[in-house]
Specification:
InterPro entries: Cyt_trans-like (IPR004821), Pantoate_ligase (IPR003721), Pantoate_ligase_C (IPR042176), Rossmann-like_a/b/a_fold (IPR014729). With about 280 residues, the chain is an alpha/beta fold. The chain has 11 helices and 9 strands. The protein has a 6-stranded parallel β-sheet, sandwiched between helices. The chain is globular and about 55 Å long.
């Protein structure tokens, strides 16, 4: 079932809720893949009905070219969902359904952790994410919303968002979906050639190497190791590699035995920007 208008969606969901169904939301920007499918399946394991929104949100792109090149194929996405989860409600709103007036972000006080990593290199990105999700939560009114840990910093932003807005939705984090070589599933992978897909495995290699080294090496030593790894592969441009305390997501140069840590990475392979992260415990 594909629905374009929020009015039609809300009428459909009102009937479902009156029948006692719980509602799950999987927000996407389309270009659906196995990673999205794992989120949808996880949502079905916890909710009776699942809404998959497909909306390429302009306010979370800080680069106009990146927005323009973002892969879009709504008919292919609809067929993908029909094949795998035919009961899914697919919400494909036009911009005016989400941003009724002008298309711009709200400002949110998410905390200091959004000044690093994605927040540092993609100015305004998280305000854009918060703006669209606040609206989607208002429209769908889901019991739960599901997000992948590949975008772990974003997951924490979304949890902070519902604290700020008070919207009664439970935010559920789901494990990163990877291919058999460890590459995180991403819509941006569609823009990579076959040879680049093979090269992209370097990101997972860097993270697994960092994890193996973490217990016996300093943060500085691990950072140098990762930098050297990327220097040996000139087709890549490493944007950042950060080790952070998981509780605050602020990059650190020291380690404390009682803390959990996570490594984050962003790199360009040609024109395609790829991100990933991994727990170091």
């Amino acid at each position: 079932m594909v629905i374009n208008s929020k009015k039609s969606l809300q009428e459909t969901l009102e009937i479902a809720k009156k029948e006692g169904n719980t509602i799950g939301l999987v927000p996407t920007m389309g270009a659906l893949h196995e990673g999205h499918l794992s989120l949808i399946n996880f949502a079905y394991s916890q909710c009776d009905r699942v809404v998959v929104s497909i909306f390429v949100n302009p306010t979370q792109f800080n680069n106009a070219a990146d927005l323009e090149k973002y892969p879009r194929d709504l008919s292919k996405d609809a067929e993908f969902l029909k094949t795998h989860n035919p009961e899914t409600i697919v919400f494909t709103p036009e911009i005016k359904e989400i941003y009724s007036d002008e298309v711009k972000s709200e400002s949110f006080e998410f905390g200091n952790f959004v000044n690093f990593m994605e927040g540092e290199f993609r100015t305004g990105h998280f305000d854009g994410v918060g703006s669209v999700l606040k609206r989607l939560f208002d429209i769908v009114k889901p019991d739960k919303a599901f997000f992948g840990e590949k975008d772990y910093q974003q997951l924490r932003v979304v949890k902070k968002l519902v604290e700020i807005t008070g919207q009664p939705v439970e935010i559920v984090g789901c494990p990163t979906s990877r291919n058999k070589f460890g590459l995180a599933q991403s819509s941006r992978n569609f823009r990579l050639s076959d040879s680049q897909l093979k090269e992209a495995e370097l990101i997972y290699e860097a993270l697994t190497r960092a994890k193996k080294m973490f217990s016996t090496n300093s943060v500085e030593t691990i950072e140098k190791e990762v930098e050297q790894l990327f220097q040996a592969h000139p087709s890549f441009e490493l944007e950042y590699f950060s080790i952070v305390k998981e509780k605050d997501l602020i990059p650190t140069k020291t380690k404390e035995s009682e803390e959990n840590y996570r490594a984050f990475i962003a790199a360009f392979l040609g024109e395609v920007r790829l991100i990933d992260n991994m727990a170091l415990y």
